[in-house]
Design a protein that fits this description.
The complex is a heterodimer of chains A (371) and B (398). Chain A is of the alpha+beta class. In chain A, 51% of the residues lie in helices and 17% in strands. Chain B is globular and about 75 Å long. The chains are: A alpha+beta (371), B alpha+beta (398). Bound molecules: flavin-adenine dinucleotide.
């Protein structure tokens, strides 16, 4: 047993943490987040130079990491600074491209030259990975896609879009899903681009006979999608851990310094016990995130149960931590000026990405029954 | 025990419905229904329509312009108005200051200020909290010093809701620093157009300008604007707070918001079925509905007891706690119901006449920010922790 990160990973975490502290303080972050693009290509390039994107991929595609714990150290730091750049999309889309053997493109992604996004989930059943209605019909050596994709983070900023769809011939659709790369990225499709309540931007994608090319084998994408989304969930869980640590420290600090009735409010037992529960739950959430990171390289059922367990835990604990932190701050916790409110919003919205608490609770028990 | 309404009360319900149908402007109710921003003019229009019918100050005694409603009547009005998507009545003048003036104000003050509340001449805001005096309100520092026939006010108030609309502010000010801190507080009415008053906006986490800081620098206030006696303001302040608290519980609003939530949950799809049929979500809805039903009865019980003259201290705190928890849980479930569509937020979509393309389902736009904004409910009007202190003090007798 060893709960320390390896030396290499710790060094990456330290240098990324330092960079973000110096170059990505909250006012810079809020400025980038509210900008027209909702992210900064300059910051993206600097982070790529630091090796942050490379850490998310393994050696076979030109990275130097790619395990659950590599993802963990990166996203924990990204969470601490509320980074809005498209790391989650990059992780999932890049992992799929790597699995499909698109090494050249992944190398460009790692260098920060091309930004990729994965458009998968759909409005009619957004949390169920297997329920995809988008179709692809052959047209010469290309495919024409039809359907819609819901709330893709930083969609408009992507140079390359990887889209899931069921290939169909003569109205007969494959039971299994395939992956497609849109010709010309998002420019060929209709993108509804909008700001997100927790910062940055997102978009809906509308495909109507949109030309695309098949990536990987037809009907063979589902296992890779499940694995890429599992990696995405590990990332979100660790982002949440980073966010929660910041929130906890800020709240502790406030309980020590804010005075009412002549004493620090941290002297009130009513708040002490609630703070203790918050601290306890954050440690439980961290353990869940460790379990999920560990299981990412394991067999499918163990992996999926661990990521569902973690996402459920993060969803439940995240809401608790966000609500309690605001409450214990009183009025000041409600203000835009205090960084806390931005952290609380992000933490809450992590619960809405890649499946919420209820979805993963049900999924955890379903996988357990099947196993 | 009779939980049903009498035929007279049911007839009254029809009267209220008829009034709402006829008088509540569709433009305004549509904004409320869809969670759009209300302007000052929207509120004033609705207040004045209510006032024409003598229904605006519906808890005031008849001689001051109230309708003389019974408690069930008030309850019926609250439920029906919320169900028809009427705006909430802005409480500061009519529901907070009004009762204080009626109970503690001089004859001249009543004669002058009450009609101005009714006809909307004044928009009041509440100057209680200060940066250093929130839960510990009695430690407030904003000072008023007597100078001839004026008080000279110096200091700061904060969290002043809709102070940007207001021309008048009722303030708790320190007039003495001797003895207990509660015994040096006075209740003063300040014209915000007096030189030395400055209002600065505070932006909340939903991006809205709802609250303000108000600064006072050598502001001269005529002594006639002192309510009651000097240094007795704490008594009046506490009296006002019990009104504020029962207001915040707002059962009518919860019932209406729950109906809207139910519509969302029956429309949203999840896992190939209606979200309403998802067992985990159905359990969340059931727990909330049960709580709300219980709350309706608790609310009526407390109101009935108050009508009989027992001052329900612990009970009004209980109502505040559970009422706000329920309102928070409704917006919590609404945001959960939206799934990923809780995340997009187009602020302009909350403006009247927005012509842009909606994101996700048509009810999605305001949901996440309503959830975040509603965190305030357990903070203001005496935080829910402070309410629990009040309850245990009242029942534990230690
Ligand atoms: C949106 C909004 C609108 C408002 N509008 C107005 C307005 O119009 N006019 C006005 O005067 N005020 C207004 N307020 C202020 C509100 O009344 C105060 O925020 C509230 O009283 C809490 O004070 P505080 O914010 O200073 O928090 P603090 O008092 O500093 O409290 C911080 C935390 O400590 C807890 N705490 C404090 N004391 C104790 C204790 N003894 N035991 C246990 N826990 C304790 C609190 O519950 C809270 O969780 C508004 C506030 C908000 C958020």
């Amino acid at each position: 047993m060893d709960f320390q990160h390896s030396e290499d990973r710790q060094m990456l975490a330290d240098s990324l943490g330092r960079y973000l502290q110096q170059q990505y303080p909250i006012d810079v972050r809020n400025g980038i987040s509210a900008s027209d693009a909702g992210w900064s290509r300059d910051k993206w390039n600097e982070l790529a130079e630091l090796g942050v994107i490379g850490a998310l991929f393994d050696e076979r595609v030109g990275g130097y990491g790619g395990t659950g714990f590599d993802i963990a150290v990166v996203f924990e730091q990204l969470g601490r600074a509320l980074v809005v750049e498209p790391f989650l999309s990059t992780l999932m889309a890049g992992r799929l491209l790597a699995a499909m053997g698109e090494t050249a493109l992944v190398e460009q992604v790692i260098a920060g030259e091309r930004v990729v996004a994965f458009a998968h989930s759909e409005a009619h059943n957004p949390y169920d990975l297997a329920d995809i209605a988008t179709t692809a019909s052959p047209s010469g050596d290309r495919w024409l896609l039809k359907g819609g994709k819901a709330v893709v983070p930083q969609l408009a900023s992507a140079d390359e879009l990887i889209v899931s769809a069921h290939a169909q011939r003569d109205g007969e659709a494959d039971a299994a899903v395939s992956l497609f790369r849109l010709d010309g990225g998002s420019a060929q499709a209709r993108v509804q681009d909008y700001p997100m309540v927790d910062g940055g931007r997102g978009g809906d994608l509308w495909l109507d006979q949109t030309p695309a090319s098949l990536v990987g084998g037809q009907g063979e994408a589902y296992p890779a999608i499940e694995e890429a989304v599992a990696a995405g969930i590990v990332a979100l869980c660790w982002e949440a851990v980073g966010v929660m640590d910041v929130i906890r420290d800020a709240t502790l600090d406030y309980l020590r310094t804010r005075k009412q009735f002549g004493v620090a409010i941290g002297k009130f037992q009513a708040l002490q016990h609630r703070m203790a529960t918050v601290a306890l739950e954050i440690e439980q959430a961290r353990s869940a995130a460790i379990n999920a990171a560990d299981a990412l390289g394991g067999d499918r059922d163990r992996r999926e149960r661990a990521v569902s367990a973690a996402k459920y835990t993060i969803g439940r604990v995240g809401t608790l931590v966000a609500e309690e932190a605001i409450q214990m701050h009183g009025g000041i916790g409600m203000t835009e000026e205090l960084p806390l409110s931005h952290y609380a919003k992000r933490l809450t919205m992590i619960g809405h990405q890649l499946g919420d608490e209820d979805h993963h609770l049900a999924r955890y028990s379903a996988i357990g029954r099947a196993a | 025990m009779i939980l049903t309404f009498t035929p007279e009360e049911e007839a009254f319900r029809e009267e209220v419905r008829g009034f709402l149908k006829e008088k509540l402007p569709a433009r305004i109710s549509e904004k409320v229904r869809t969670g759009k921003r209300l302007t000052k003019a929207d509120h004033e229009e609705w207040h004045s329509l209510l006032n024409e019918r003598r229904w605006y100050a519906n808890h005031w005694p008849v001689e001051h312009g109230g309708p003389g409603w019974t408690i069930p009547q008030r309850h019926i009005f609250e439920i029906e108005a919320a169900a028809a998507h009427a705006p909430s009545i802005i409480p500061f003048g009519v529901s907070m200051l009004g009762p204080v003036l009626i109970k503690y104000g001089s004859e001249e003050q009543k004669k002058y200020w009450l009609p101005r509340i009714l006809d909307g001449s004044d928009w009041w805001c509440q100057g209680y909290s200060e940066p250093g005096a929130g839960s510990d309100l009695a430690s407030l520092k904003c000072a008023a010093v007597r100078d001839g026939d004026h008080y000279v006010v110096n200091g700061q108030k904060t969290w002043t809701t809709l102070g940007q609309h207001a021309n008048m502010i009722f303030c708790l000010v320190r007039t003495s620093s001797e003895g207990k801190k509660q015994e040096g507080i006075s209740f003063l009415l300040v014209d915000m157009n007096t030189p030395g008053v400055e209002v600065r906006p505070i932006t909340l986490l939903d991006g809205e300008h709802e609250v303000n800081e108000v600064f006072f620098t050598d502001v001269r206030v005529p002594v006639e604007n002192l309510v009651g006696e000097e240094n007795k303001g704490w008594t009046y302040a506490k009296y006002l707070l019990t009104y504020e608290r029962s207001n915040i519980a707002d059962v009518g609003k919860s019932v209406a918001a729950f109906a809207h939530l139910r519509h969302i949950v029956e429309t949203q799809q999840r896992g190939g079925r209606r979200l309403a049929d998802d067992p985990l979500f159905a359990a969340r809805m059931a727990r909330l509905e049960i709580d709300l039903d219980n709350m309706r009865t608790t609310n009526l019980r407390v109101l009935a007891a108050a009508g009989e003259g027992t001052a329900p201290v612990a009970e009004s705190s209980m109502l505040k706690i559970r009422g706000t928890e329920i309102r928070q849980e409704i917006t919590n479930l609404a945001r959960r119901a939206l799934g990923p569509y809780a995340q997009p937020f187009v602020s302009e979509a909350l403006d009247e006449g927005f012509k842009g393309e909606p994101v996700g389902p048509d009810y999605a736009a305001p949901i996440a920010v309503e959830y975040f904004n509603n965190r305030k409910l357990s903070i203001f009007g005496g935080s829910n922790e402070v309410q629990r202190e009040i309850i245990t003090k009242a029942i534990l007798e230690l």
